[in-house]
Specification:
It is a single chain. The chain is 28% helix and 15% strand. It is an alpha+beta fold. The chain has a 4-stranded mixed beta sheet with strand order 1-2-7-3, sandwiched between helices. The two termini are 19 Å apart.
Length: 182
């Protein structure tokens, strides 16, 4: 197990769509807690994420980047909860919250990466199920500096060149696959 270290997260919210009214209260409560955050202008999601990561890696005082989807109503304790998992196990490089796919039937945005590189959907969230080969949606996620340095630029992009019928990978799942396979 890795040695305990000081955890210093910074929040990043990719500004890539309008802020839904129902999430405004969450954002107000979160930023009243005084978390540092990365400023960014509106852009498409992959560009915004890559810009945010570039700025995060340029500032060595932060250990983790907490990415929060602006269209989610996260609990005000979301940063504490994500970072607690990392504090409990410093070997964890990426920790995500429970997110669902945005369209019915709203299944978990959670997959298992098989040995051959295929992804298998997980229908229900079961405690202890998620492990080192989990591919997650990134509505809320804490990512270590080391994980981002390992994956390398560009961190987020869409690549549909090697799709199989019925696969619709997102840049979130493609990032996770690369992080697992490196």
């Amino acid at each position: 197990m890795a040695e305990k270290r000081k955890l210093s997260p910074v929040i990043f919210v990719p500004l890539e769509r309008n802020l839904p009214t129902q999430t405004f209260r969450f954002w107000a409560a979160l930023f009243q807690q005084g978390w540092p955050y990365i400023h960014q202008t509106y852009d498409q999601a992959d560009v915004a994420l890559n810009q945010g990561i570039y700025h995060f890696l340029s500032d060595t005082k932060f250990s983790h980047m907490v990415v929060l989807g602006m269209d989610h109503a996260h609990p005000p304790t979301v940063v504490h909860r994500l970072m607690r998992h990392i504090a409990d196990d410093p070997d964890k490089q990426i920790v995500g919250g429970r997110n669902v796919i945005r369209v019915p039937p709203f299944k978990p945005a959670l997959y298992w990466l098989g040995d051959e590189g295929d992804m298998y959907g997980i229908e229900e969230l079961t405690p202890g199920l998620v492990g080192p080969r989990a591919v997650i949606g990134m509505g809320c996620v804490a990512i270590s500096r080391e994980a981002l340095e390992t994956v390398g630029f560009p961190w987020f992009y869409n690549d549909w060149s090697d799709l199989k019928p019925g696969q619709f990978p997102s840049m979130d799942t493609q990032f996770c696959r690369r992080a697992i396979l490196k």
